[in-house]
Amino acid sequence: MRISELARASGVPVATIKFYLREGLLPDGVRTSPNQAQYDDAHVQRLRLIRALVGAGGLSLAATRNVLGHIDRPTGLTLDLLGSAHQAVAPALPDEVDLAAAVALLRRWGWNACVDAADSGDEGRVDDALGGLAVALAALEDAGFVVEPDRMDTYGQSMMQVAQAEIDGLPTDTPSAAVRYVVLGTVLVEPVLLALRRLAQREASAARFPQTEPDV
Amino acid sequence: MRISELARASGVPVATIKFYLREGLLPDGVRTSPNQAQYDDAHVQRLRLIRALVGAGGLSLAATRNVLGHIDRPTGLTLDLLGSAHQAVAPALPDEVDLAAAVALLRRWGWNACVDAADSGDEGRVDDALGGLAVALAALEDAGFVVEPDRMDTYGQSMMQVAQAEIDGLPTDTPSAAVRYVVLGTVLVEPVLLALRRLAQREASAARFPQTEPDV
Predict the structure, then answer these.
(1) Interfacial A residues in 124-153 facing B (CB < 8 Å)
(2) Chain segment B77-112, per-residue pLDDT in tens
(3) Which of A81, A172, B32, B147 lies most in the core, judged by the most C-beta atoms within 10 Å?
(4) Half-sphere exposure of A76 (CA within 13 A, CB side)
């Protein structure tokens, strides 16, 4: 199909498609004349993927390029794969992060594999997932917001349930399928979980406080 | 204390404190001379809160002002409160959102209260939490990423566990304490949950694939 048909099929405007081509996010079509190229279904799929990452995923152009690179050129499996997938979408960490509270929490739960994996990483580089937890816990403390140990345990258990279901479903046929699953599962499922938490709070609140009158 | 002491006590530079004062995020101190004002512990607490929202919370200045406004001037309890807290921090939604898939999912789980609450909102305005779920589900579909019903059920159950623990801990003594709890719980706990999910994925992956060799 020509670029105008590709635009129609994908719902992405021609100017945006040309931008993605220039930026190397979308592979070139097969050139049929100096001013024309042919595109196929793979281009439609790729455009829908880019739109999902940039749109609901909320990724920057650089992060999108990074994620697509991981999908196009997978470099490992399972732990390595998870590490690089998380790194592709992780928020930047400050240079100095105190990991003590995060490590103590994970050790208390017996999550030793992920602490040990973090330890074995590059010297001097803070592990993204562990560092992310440390920064998030520090922010709670800074704000004077106390999460009791019981509730923190509920958070850990619930997220383990989520992760267990996700790892059970990990496709193991090709590295590329696995990376795609992990990267998209990280980027695109996060907004689903956060939206479900908000809705569940309302549902639980309605059950606990059946008569909700504004009282101020 | 003077502004230089406030800077030391809070860890926020004087120039930033002056910026927050100008922007109205931090209440003025008590003026003791044309060029001097006195600040107290409430200012230290407020600065730590602002730093947490802007920093780990990743909120914009406008969103931070909105959140602080909700804490300073609470306007309701429970469902209303949850709605306004979520609204304070919710990502912007597109004008047109197809809610059908989100509503069908919640009805399947019997989460009727939150669907009904969304229905009873302002005419023509899409409910933030329900709209957020709809947009997130559409992004999965756009990307061609299939989440099987079983796994979606696990997501719902896990988030309900999280929400139940949170609503059980809701302080009911003053509206202001409740709003603070809900708003900060929304903004500051989200990064904790997402970091825990990533770490749990590693832990579950290490248990499922004990020998993890890069195989490519």
Answers:
(1) 128-130, 132-133, 135-140, 142-145, 147-148, 150-151
(2) 545 566 666 666 666 677 788 899 999 999 999 999
(3) A81
(4) 13
Distances (CA, A) of B55 to A63, A93, A140, B179: 20, 11, 11, 20
Task: Report d(CA B116, CA B147) in Å as an integer.
Answer: 25
Asked if B206's CB is within 8 angstroms of A106's CB, the reply is no
ipTM given for this complex: 0.78
Does the beta carbon of B113 lie under 8 angstroms from any beta carbon of chain A?
yes
- Cross-chain residue pair B148–A138, CB shorter than 8 Å: no
| B48–A143 CB contact, under 8 Å | yes
pTM over 0.80, yes/no:
no
A189 and chain B in contact, CB less than 8 A: yes
